[in-house]
Design a protein that fits this description.
It holds the Pfam family PH1_SSRP1-like. With 705 residues, this protein is an alpha+beta fold.
């Protein structure tokens, strides 16, 4: 048989509420750990007196009774687990796990039995219901009637607040059954009565939650806060933990008392009681007990007369009465040397203390998060400023806490602490919701060197230089592509097409020829480069020289492997950030060395760019000439067809009366036109190095006419 049994999703009934957690049974005893508060109930095997198995609302339950009268109830078991539990109890605890069913007859009369901390209402031998007397807050009596009032349960939607018992009169003399019933209840109930004198009183202590100044009266079983407006009575059984935390200014101390259930004021619940002390304030304290009682009760932890700092006296007395250790910050030290980190939670600023087993935030609202309930933590980039970051914690229950506005200098210390505690660090920077904050952070980082921004600036400068060079080069290219012969040819063709309608003299035509080509040449010169500029930007020439890198990028390429070896597993983002820090901290002399290398690279690039631009211009000129040649040939063929049509039309429209004069003018005009066009064609063919097509037989016949 196994030495231990473990059960998850088990519910413990405590003061009317069902708290889930984990139950573990071992040879030494029974241990239950509350998932919500982390509180551990430990029952030694030697203290167990009885074990009862029964059917309850949540399946099956286990009720354990101890020899000192305490009762523990655990629900959520399956019916099939009874045999396993029964064998375990027999083997390790020497107890029979008895099966007892609850009575469901529905009767409302029966017998009340008091056993330890439990009031049981039975019908015959079967219990109908049981009331833990620790749930009772008040007990009042009337004629043949006893009324029990209960503590309100904040976690339950519906709470039982009152039960009344009718107690019939008896014939026995001298015994009042109503008073006997009430005394049995009050002896075990959680009823706070300020009877007797307080052990000690602390006057006018500054309390942050609940806010105000309170007199704290220390009683043997509870703590009494007496203020000008409100009073609070806090049983020591409700105290979970004690914390003593130094303030960041090193002149004040926080004393934090964690409570479950919390103290209430209207609808407000205070899970933490926070006191603020000055380190300079001293006190002399005398306990309201004689020395023998002090020695017997506190076993040397307290003495009748004590003196010291006020916060030391309060914490020392509370530790002795509550019997719990005081938690102090561990070995964590922030950037400023303090044991805490300044941050904001929700709308208020406060202090976050990394402890040995959790985090605690003070003071508004106070938050305590244990390491064992943390699912993961995350370091997020601040959305409003570049000088801070956010620290996010998500629990296994899905609750998320975000501590914002943490100084950037605290990042390294906090990251090392979290890493040493082996907490799961989740990088949420790749998620869709974090992309925007990441980009804003990268763009707005003014103090730290930004590699991407530096590279963009360098490329912008190079683009401006290239734009200036290309504007100069495009002007030269346009001037070179200007061909007067081509423009003369265009004007001659335009003049030929309007030959029959023209009545101006040769001199006037020649003057018009001089003006029109200038305008047309200007249009050609301006428009052609504009059409071809976007085409050149469409694709990047792979043969073009690569732009030179900045001094920082040259240094980063040379130092990247060293940074990776010094920081194994570093991400690309963190590597850029680390490189920026190293570059920023580099001396001026070392930076000048890389500046010289960048300047040499820039000169080499400019030289290579000039050679590349000369070669590309020559290629573009050759392409332009071939295109212009083809276009010119098409225009010549089109012009000849137009001239043929115009000649045939003019010959058919000649009249016999004016034949001699008209034929003379036409012959002179056509022959001069052919001679001029032939001369221009000859010049063009000599300029371009290509022969133009010979004139057709029809053209020569019209010329002879």
């Amino acid at each position: 048989m196994a030495d231990t049994l473990e059960f998850n999703e088990i519910y413990q009934e405590v003061k009317g509420s069902m708290n889930d957690g984990r139950l573990r049974l071992s040879r030494q005893g029974v241990i239950f750990k509350n998932s919500k508060t982390g509180k551990v109930d430990n029952i030694q095997a030697s203290e167990l007196a009885e074990g009862v198995w029964r059917r309850v609302a949540l399946g099956h339950g286990l009720k354990l009774l101890t020899k000192n009268g305490h009762v523990y109830k655990y629900d959520g078991f399956r019916e099939s687990e009874f045999d396993k539990l029964s064998d375990f109890f027999k083997a390790h605890y020497c107890l029979e796990l008895a099966e007892k069913d609850l009575c469901v007859k529905g009767w409302n009369w029966g017998t009340v039995r008091f056993g330890g901390q439990l009031l049981s209402f039975d019908i015959g031998e079967q219990p109908v219901f049981e009331i833990p007397l620790s749930n009772v807050s008040q007990c009042t009596t009337g004629k043949n009637e006893v009324t029990l009032e209960f503590h309100q349960n904040d976690d339950a939607e519906v709470s039982l607040m009152e039960v009344r018992f009718y107690v019939p009169p008896t014939q026995e003399d001298g015994v009042d059954p109503v008073e006997a019933f009430a005394q049995n209840v009050l002896s075990k109930a959680d009823v706070i009565q300020a009877t007797g004198d307080a052990i000690c009183i602390f006057r006018e202590l500054q309390c942050l939650t609940p806010r105000g100044r309170y007199d704290i009266r220390i009683y043997p079983t509870f703590l009494h806060l007496h203020g000008k407006t409100f009073d609070y009575k806090i049983p020591y059984t409700t105290v979970l933990r004690l914390f003593l935390l130094p303030h960041k200014d090193q002149r004040q101390m926080f004393f934090v008392i964690s409570l479950d259930p919390p103290i209430k004021q209207g609808q407000t619940r205070y899970h933490f009681l926070i006191l603020l002390f000055s380190k300079d304030e001293d006190i002399s304290l005398t306990l309201n007990m004689n020395e023998e009682e002090v020695e017997k009760r506190f076993e040397g932890r307290l003495t009748k007369n004590m003196s010291g700092s006020l916060y030391e006296m309060v914490s020392r007395v509370m530790k002795a009465l509550v019997n719990r250790k005081i938690t102090v910050p561990g070995n964590f030290q922030g950037h400023s040397g303090a044991q805490c980190i300044t941050c904001s939670y929700k709308a208020s600023s406060g202090l976050l203390y990394p402890l040995e087993r959790g985090f605690i935030y003070v003071h508004k609202p106070p938050v305590h998060i244990r390491f064992d309930e943390i699912s993961f933590v995350n370091f997020a980039r601040g959305t409003t400023t570049t000088r801070s970051f956010d620290f996010e914690i998500e629990t296994k229950q899905g609750t998320q806490y975000t501590f914002s506005s943490i100084e950037r200098e605290e990042y390294g210390k906090l990251f090392d602490f979290v890493n040493a505690k082996k907490l799961n660090i989740k990088n949420r920077g790749l998620k869709e919701g974090m992309k925007q904050s990441y980009d804003e952070y990268a763009d707005s980082d003014e103090d730290q060197h930004d590699a991407y921004l530096e590279r963009m600036k360098e490329e912008g400068k190079i683009r401006e230089e290239n734009a200036n060079d290309s504007s100069d080069g495009s002007g030269e290219e346009t001037d070179e592509s200007f061909n007067p012969g081509e423009e003369d040819d265009d004007v001659a063709e335009e003049f030929d097409s309007n030959a029959s309608a023209s009545s101006s003299s040769g001199d006037g035509d020649s003057d018009r020829d001089d003006k029109k080509p200038a305008k047309k040449a200007k249009i050609v010169k301006d428009r052609k480069p504009r059409k071809k500029q976007p085409e050149s930007k469409k694709g990047k020439d792979p043969n073009a020289p690569k732009r030179p890198m900045s001094a920082y990028m040259l240094w980063l390429n040379a130092s990247r492997e060293k940074i990776k070896s010094d920081h194994p597993g570093i991400s690309i983002t963190d590597l850029s950030k680390k490189a920026g820090e190293l570059w920023k901290a580099m001396s001026k002399e070392k930076k000048e060395e890389w500046d010289r290398k960048a300047e040499d690279a820039r000169r080499d690039y400019e030289k290579a760019m000039k050679e590349y631009s000369v070669g590309s211009k020559a290629d573009s000129h050759r392409g332009e000439r071939s295109k212009k040649k083809k276009k010119k040939q098409e225009k010549q063929l089109k012009g000849k067809g137009d001239k043929k049509g115009a000649t045939s039309k003019s010959s058919s429209s000649k009249s016999p009366a004016k034949g001699m004069s008209d034929s003379f003018k036409s012959k002179e005009f056509v022959s001069s036109d052919e001679s001029s066009s032939a001369e221009s064609k000859k010049e063009d063919s000599e300029d371009e190095g290509a022969a133009s097509p010979p004139p057709s037989s029809e053209d020569s016949a019209s010329g002879s006419d």
